[in-house]
Design a protein that fits this description.
2 domains, 4-stranded antiparallel beta sheet
């Protein structure tokens, strides 16, 4: 069995009733092994010769009312190779527990705090854990951004002493998934990359771009200048724009509906009112006009 040597943070956000894990490692596809979470139950990170049964079994125990520490104790009691394991758990109330087996490769350790725990093995030193914890505690952002900020701080503090390869973030909340049909709010992985944590941060930014919504003050009117820029992009891409006029007429609106639909930004454009969210407009300019 290959060891899953990594650093991770497991956390709960009571404000939105969400649980999540962010993890990175010099190991391919770490997101396929380490993170487990269930809305209303808690979250688990299992690593270092990872016993993947700890994920579903830990969630099952917490869904039945066990605290994070109680669930961790039961998991370890039934594992003869517990000294090889490293585990972080946060339960439904945000109580946390972490364990580092005596046979985990140095540097290895963990820390618990209010609504979170951090842990890692084969690290450059304890500063990795400390930076992850302090960054999370000091952030006022939403849970996914807080998790990745903490992971990035740990990565920049030294991270896995063998190098970098993969990273993942997994966050759940009730009806948080697409269409509200499941609890999978955020679920992104970078399975093999020279700078996986930075790439994962970029991907989370794309999630916000596609699924977020700007406040009304960030909506742009499709005035002559904005319209002209959009018409030029659409004309270059072969949409039915014969002339760039800067006039938001019916033909332009029809073409814009097709263009925005193909780019998956329908939720961030009001065609009838002639409005587009500023981050989307800026993204389109950068993507198609450089």
């Amino acid at each position: 069995m290959n060891r899953i040597s990594t650093f991770s943070i497991v956390a709960y956000d009571a404000a939105v009733d969400a649980w999540g894990i962010a993890v990175a490692s010099k190991f391919p596809a770490v997101g396929a092994v380490v993170p487990w979470a269930q809305a209303g139950a808690g979250a688990v990170a299992t690593q270092s010769y990872a016993n993947t049964t700890f994920g579903p079994e830990g969630l099952d125990l917490m869904s039945k009312g066990r605290s994070a520490q109680e669930a961790l104790n039961e998991l370890l009691a039934n594992d003869e190779e517990r000294d090889l394991r490293q585990v972080g758990i946060v339960d439904a109330q945000g109580r946390s527990a972490t364990f580092t087996g005596a046979d985990c490769f140095e540097w290895a350790g963990g820390k618990i705090g209010e609504n979170y725990c951090v842990q890692g093995n084969i690290l450059t030193g304890p500063e990795v854990i400390e930076q992850m914890a302090s960054t999370f505690e000091g952030s006022k952002k939403d849970l996914p951004e807080r998790l990745l900020d903490a992971l990035l701080a740990a990565d920049q503090a030294g991270g896995d002493r063998r190098g970098k390869q993969s990273a993942a973030i997994y966050v759940v909340k009730p009806e948080g998934g697409y269409g509200g049909f499941n609890d999978r709010w955020i679920d992104y992985r970078v399975d093999d990359h020279e700078n996986p944590v930075s790439r994962l941060t970029e991907i989370l930014g794309l999630h916000s771009l596609y699924f977020g919504k700007s406040p009304s003050e960030e909506e742009l009117e499709i005035d002559a200048a904005v319209c002209e820029a959009l018409q030029q992009i659409m004309q270059d891409l072969g949409y039915d724009i014969e002339e760039v006029t800067g006039e938001y007429d019916q033909k332009t609106q029809t073409a814009l509906r097709q263009f925005i639909g193909n780019e998956n930004f329908e939720e961030r454009t009001d065609f009838e009112r002639g409005r587009i969210d500023q981050p989307v407009y800026e993204y389109l300019l950068k993507k198609f006009r450089g």
